[in-house]
């Protein structure tokens, strides 16, 4: 039920209590161990706490505890048992497979009669701050990525610790990185569409109103153009203004999944936007962009994705690429004047027969490899 990181922290807490010749393993020992773990440090800092100050408070607490003989094996207090039980309950309710460092910190905070909980509250850390960070990746304060020189990593623990730091990244939780997929050669090449691609680049390089929207019938290849742009950026065949840019495709389903309470969805989209703002050259791609109008709004409310996006788009802080069909553009998207005027429309027409043959010829090797067969030229012409 516990992750490897958490098991290591619990073992470290047991060793700490034994080394200090304490009769009991207390919640404070667990918190002390968490404050020497990379993930625990990051969570505390992201929630506005001062790690060194909490460590100092714990040292003063330990200095006042009675000591016993060296051969003593510290026993768990009832408070520790309650904290472990609360962490497991939190994991079960959230649908996770195992409890992590963040879950145990939430449980410690709930153990209000302990000094550990008092020290966290003394730093202004609330239970909501902890839940927002471990569930949605929303930090109370910005924390720079840094390695703690005092941490010792063994047996691959450094790689695992780095992986844990990315688990709360809203961009990893709620978007797909098209640029990374392009780097890993997981995207199909874009054949043709040079005019549409150049128009997209031209709009993205503007200072204001730098948000293109692809409008075309279903299946004409709107998403493929966005993927083609990611491939072009990866290949370095773009203007200097877009050099090194990353394209993130918004996953509306992931944003909506598990939002049980009012405000959960709003917090998630805000976390995504905040993460995008921290990246100097990021582009947000929203497929079926008409779905964001009304998405996440509570009954009778108007706080949906589109209204959260508008301020960032108006200032030009975030560049966005949308795609939708002609019907949805007229019926839904165009009616939201405040949103539609921030986008520049690009018509994506159905490719001609010669263009279709060119596209099929370009994609032929990949499909031949996948299906273990060969396509003749006449077959491609007939299909076109």
**How can the largest sheet be summarized?**
6 strands, mixed
Q: How much helicity do the residues have?
A: 40-55%
Distance between the termini: 55 Å
| CATH-derived topology of the largest domain | Rossmann fold
- Provide the CATH top-level class of the largest domain: Alpha Beta
By oligomeric state, this entry counts as: single chain
Sequence of secondary-structure elements: HEHHHEHHHHHHEHHEHEHHEHEHHEHH
What's the arrangement of strands in the largest beta sheet? 3-5-6-7-4-8
Residue fraction in strands = 5-15%
CA-based shape: elongated
In total, the number of domains comes to 3
Look at the structure and name the CATH superfamily of the largest domain. Answer: P-loop containing nucleotide triphosphate hydrolases
> Helix tally?
20
**How large, in whole angstroms, is the Cα Rg?**
26 Å
Query: What's the rounded overall pLDDT mean?
Result: 85
Structural class: alpha/beta
What is the CATH architecture descriptor of the largest domain?
A: 3-Layer(aba) Sandwich
Question: How many distinct beta strands?
Answer: 8
